[in-house]
Design goal:
Largest sheet: 3 strands, mixed
Shape: elongated
Oligomer: single chain
Radius of gyration: 28 Å
Helix content: 40-55%
Number of helices: 16
Structural class: mainly alpha
Mean pLDDT: 81
Distance between the termini: 42 Å
Low-confidence stretches: none
Number of strands: 5
Strand order of the largest sheet: 1-2-3
Length: 382
């Protein structure tokens, strides 16, 4: 019993990946570094712009946990600003330092909750104002605007740029935002049969509305359901279900020939290989359409072959497969469990996963292969 009690004092967070550790630390370095450099370079201290300790706490949220509702732009900017107003207001009417700090933080917390902008560094902002009577006398309520709102806004903008540059999404995508396909449908992994109100009710029931957003909850429930589904597939691997009789193209294959292969075989993807069989990348039909659209916007999108051949003639030298293929698509080995392939294909962003051994492609797992395997596993289980 005592052992279980002491476990509550152990770390509650799982180990993070080295990439996430570096991403968060470098993000804070860039955010505060850029803000400090601009303040020094333009000598903005006379304008009331300077760095205060709570901006460090804000950076923790913006760069380490950008998906948290506490880290969103509204929470950060408005939360810090109303906390500054609360701290200044209390400092103007209360002389006792201890009482001033306590009242300032309490008022800041209440104000942040009321305006739906809870941001933990806001409590520190209120303390800075309460512990600095000179701030109240010299800047007054302008303190909430400069430096608090101005610098917090700058950090948010830097966090948005940094998130995009490092493959993250910030601000958090809202539940009713359009999907990556620009439709109102939820991504397949998040189609739970639960609406936004029901997900919010779950968060309220477990008192998690400040720690987790509806979007994240939907994603987590979907991922959990997908993981449960993967348990039913048994020990199947990519090598068991992959297509082995491959139709491939060389790096110098013209787009006209690529389009002919798509039409002839009704494929959605074609692996690109070197003459010695070494795997280079994959071409999806959408790659061909996008490239053709760039040079022939007025042509019928359905005439891929004619469009590609027209591009070849227009340019004089044929556009080849290597110029439009993707090299960033996920890959698998023959021993990769199909459970690992499920999340890769469930969100609609990946149509096929090449199976590569020693640099050469030996097969490809398409959505059709995966659906057939899951259907077979379901029949066997039944």
């Amino acid at each position: 019993m005592k052992h279980n009690y002491l476990r509550g004092f152990m770390p509650a967070m799982p180990f993070s990946t080295p990439f996430e550790v570096a991403r968060a630390g470098i993000g804070a370095l860039i955010g505060l570094g850029v803000a400090g450099f601009l303040l020094s370079f333009f000598d903005l201290h006379d304008a009331g712009l300077y760095l205060i300790a709570p901006f460090g706490a804000t950076s923790v949220l913006l760069f380490a946990v950008p998906n948290s509702p506490l880290a969103q732009p509204w929470s950060a900017i408005v939360g810090n600003s109303v906390s500054a107003l609360a701290g200044i207001a209390v400092c103007m009417v209360v002389d006792d330092a201890v009482l001033c700090v306590a009242l300032a933080v309490a008022l800041a917390i209440s104000a942040m909750i009321l305006v739906r902008a809870v941001h933990p560094p806001g409590g520190a902002v209120a303390m800075v104002a309460a512990l600095g009577p000179d701030i109240a006398s010299e800047l007054g309520f302008q303190f909430a605007l400069t430096p608090v709102a101005a610098i917090t806004t700058a950090l948010v903008v830097i966090a948005m740029i940094y998130a995009r540059a490092t493959g993250r999404s910030y601000p958090l995508r809202h539940f009713d935002d359009k999907s990556i396909h620009q439709t109102s449908d939820r991504p397949p992994i998040e189609r739970l049969g639960l609406n936004e109100g029901e997900l919010n009710a779950i968060l309220q029931q477990y008192r998690q509305s400040l720690n987790l957003g509806v979007e994240d909850l939907a994603r987590l429930i979907g991922a959990a359901e997908l993981q449960v589904a993967s348990h039913r597939t048994g020990p199947l691997t990519a090598g068991d279900i992959m297509s082995r009789d491959l139709v491939t193209v060389k790096s110098d294959t013209s787009l006209g020939d690529v389009a002919d292969l798509f039409r002839r075989h009704s494929f959605t993807s074609l692996p690109v290989v070197e003459k010695d069989g070494r795997y280079l990348g994959v071409i999806f039909q959408i790659h061909l359409i996008r490239r053709a659209r760039e040079d022939a916007l007025r042509l019928d999108r359905g005439l891929m072959s004619a469009m590609a051949r027209l591009i070849d003639r227009k340019r004089g030298a044929p556009v080849t497969a290597i110029e439009i293929m993707s090299v960033t698509e996920p890959r698998a080995t023959a021993s990769t469990p199909i459970a690992a392939l499920l999340p890769l294909m469930a969100d609609g962003a990946c149509d096929a996963v090449p199976v590569v051994e020693y640099g050469k492609i030996i097969g490809i797992v398409t959505r059709t292969d995966l659906i057939a395997a899951l259907a077979h596993a379901g029949l066997v289980a039944a």
